[in-house]
Amino acid sequence: MASFVLVHGAWDGGYVWKDAAALLRDAGHEVYVPTLTGLGERTHLAHPDVGLTTFIQNIAGVIQYEDLQDVILVGHSYSGMVISGVAERLPDRLKHLVFVDAVVPYDGESIASISGPHMAEQFPKDAQETGDGWKIHPRATSDWRKSPMTLLSFTESVDINHPEAAHIPRTYIEVLDNPEQWPMTPVFRKSAQRAKDSGWRHVAAELGGHWIMQTQPQKVVHILNDCI
């Protein structure tokens, strides 16, 4: 039996992992699907000071308070930032990091800096125009469950300098069928290249778009099982 902690991406909640988590549990694994502060069923906790540090503490807290060891820590999309930060805090408790079409940050980077100058300028603009100065609403979605992200969650950087964390095995799952016109597609391609350049295990396939844990949960679980 393995211990999985599955972390959702921006604007989402733990619910996006529902089907994949069920498959992992059916196979006898221990699975946690926490929702980050201010998102999903925790939208009532949102405030301007919630940021990347908060999210890292959310996940580190699950691992510590549940007393988990040899964790396979999985991050989707934005939460490549989160799991990278958790690895810096708890490298001795992690067995494997899995980045599911996720951002791969270097030391001192934020989502804003990784996304490039155009998007970095757009984040505060969106917050000022439609988010009371601190909220960034999800774009072009019909899913009522998605919640605004804080501006701080996009501008706060992550520190990556722990020598033990650098030795944690890592897998990158690259989705090849993201829309070409989607602004985040080049960001994830860059992250996939960073993973390959660093010698990580790399899995690339057309898996049903960015939210592959919902569109192809069986395929995602098959890849995760190879990390045990």
From TrEMBL:
Domain AB hydrolase-1: 4-221
InterPro entries recorded: AB_hydrolase_1 (IPR000073), AB_hydrolase_fold (IPR029058), Sec-Metab_Biosynth_Hydrolase (IPR052897)
Pfam families per the UniProt record, alphabetical: Abhydrolase_6 (PF12697)
Keyword annotations from UniProtKB, A to Z: Hydrolase
Protein name: Alpha/beta hydrolase
PANTHER family linked: AB HYDROLASE-1 DOMAIN-CONTAINING PROTEIN-RELATED, ESTERASE_LIPASE_THIOESTERASE DOMAIN-CONTAINING PROTEIN
One Gene Ontology molecular-function label: hydrolase activity
Keyword Repressor among record annotations: no
